[in-house]
Amino acid sequence: MTDLSSENWIAIIGVSAFFIWAIATFLFSRISVKHIEREMIKEDIQHPIWDKGIGSVIVTYSFIMVFPKLNPTIVDFEAVRRHTRKKDKKLALFFTMAMFFSFIMMFTTAYLYGPKA
Predict the structure, then answer these.
(1) 73-105 pLDDT per residue, tens
(2) What is the number of helices (H) and of strands (E) in the chain?
(3) Residue 17 in 3-state DSSP?
(4) How far apart are the first and last CA of the chain?
(5) How far is CA 21 from the centre of its chain?
(6) CA-to-CA distance for 64 and 82, rounded, in angstroms?
(7) Cα dihedral angle (17, 21, 23, 24), rounded to 10 degrees?
């Protein structure tokens, strides 16, 4: 079997982290965000107007669930917390950890193997 260099290991870990983050994004948006938005519509709380297609509300909702002292003014954080289930918190933690790890791998790769100018 051929030995893998450190560059190959970082590439394998980085690509794996990116795909895990993609899976976490898909699961969190389809399960948790859809549930929260349905419950908020029942209370006549509208989806943020500024989030039409870019999906940044996904990150905001996950941060509200993972960091309990965070109270962003761009969404109704009390309604998000009120409609959060136990599995939503677990998915938010999975999404946030996958996102942070993917960012760390991207920055590490750019630092170690980027242009040496």
Answers:
(1) 778 888 899 999 999 999 999 999 999 999 999
(2) 5, 0
(3) helix
(4) 35
(5) 7
(6) 11
(7) 130
